[in-house]
Amino acid sequence: MEIVLDHLTKKFPGRGKNRQEVIAVNDFTFTIPDGKLAALLGPSGCGKSTTLNMICGLLAPTSGEIFFGDNNVTALPPEERGVGMVFQNYALYPHMTVEQNIRFPLENFRGKDRLSKEAMKERVLEAAKLVHIEELLERKPSELSGGQQQRVAIARSLVKLPKVLLLDEPLSNLDARLRLATREEIRRIQQETRITTVFVTHDQDEAMSISDLIVVMKEGVLQQVDSPQKVYDDPANQFVAQFLGTPPINMFDGELKDGQLWIAGEPVLRVAEGESVPEGPVSVGIRPEGFILLEGGAMHNEMVRPEITGRDVSVIFRNKAAKTDVVRSIISAEDWNHISGGEVHFDLKPAKVYLFAPESGERIRLKLEPLAQS
Ligand code: ATP
């Protein structure tokens, strides 16, 4: 089921003395295609939960509309939208067994939708199998691990065969290892069921690893809606570039001058022929994998310390001329073997270098090339 948000806005009235109105969600328009998993990603307070609650029907928008397929659901109550919802605190009924917990939503079906006991049993078993907890049906929630409880909560949301699945930070109460395993599980379940899923997280790694589509937001304003790869490779602005990527993108003060990009008083790249160059200061973002180690390269750096992660080596450098800038670079283990310590020079891979307007952080799209190329 495709989900369409059309100019969706939610304002909350101000409280206290100055009664400043909060625009939690400001004019969101985007589409989540049928069968895809979208992550709503952004820092605390950016409007993720508010957006999710409007999609499920717990909150009414101030303006704008929500469509599930061709169906305008804006005025429908949650129970008529066909959504399954999982919150960060699993909210299982402690006195019920796992089986009773999963079955509970089916008990409320009335009239022609009412299911026989056998049909309910079958549905519960199907949902339990999907999340791999069919062995635990007789247990009480207190006898389960956090990860198992979260699977029960997911099974309970799937048992009604929802057209849309909504997950609000479903992994935040799990420890690091379980988080990783459970997010893979959520991806597997989503791919098996092909239920259009919206997943709220403030964790960019989580969003990058499981979603088809990332919706990046900040203070109620939509920043970018794209695939994880596109959001990483082609960020709309400095906020998106800095929010995504581990280690994070390196930021420098730079300057566009004489058809070249300068950092810390040295030219590092040149602007391609035919591009008109807006001269002046720019913010320069360089992804950690954008550095080429060289004997006589452009940027002079001292190595601070390596972080060896296996196949790659993440090295922290201090840029000599910019002094305070610490550069995080990912290089191959082979390149790492050529570093004897001390001073290192970098050249830059133009495709991994991004320019932004210093004030607004808007992307400046210029084609850059290595200096040596003529
Ligand atoms: P978090 O990651 O911390 O859960 P979030 O991105 O989910 O944050 P929301 O909970 O959607 O953010 O909140 C967005 C903004 O709306 C925040 O500034 C918040 O303080 C405000 N807000 C949310 N609910 C209400 C409410 N009922 N009344 C007034 N303001 C609210």
Automatic annotation (TrEMBL):
Keywords: ATP-binding, Cell membrane, Membrane, Nucleotide-binding, Transport. Residues 3-244 form the ABC transporter domain. It comes from the Bacteria. GO terms for cellular component: ATP-binding cassette (ABC) transporter complex, substrate-binding subunit-containing. GO terms for molecular function: ABC-type ferric iron transporter activity; ATP binding; ATP hydrolysis activity. This is ABC transporter domain-containing protein.
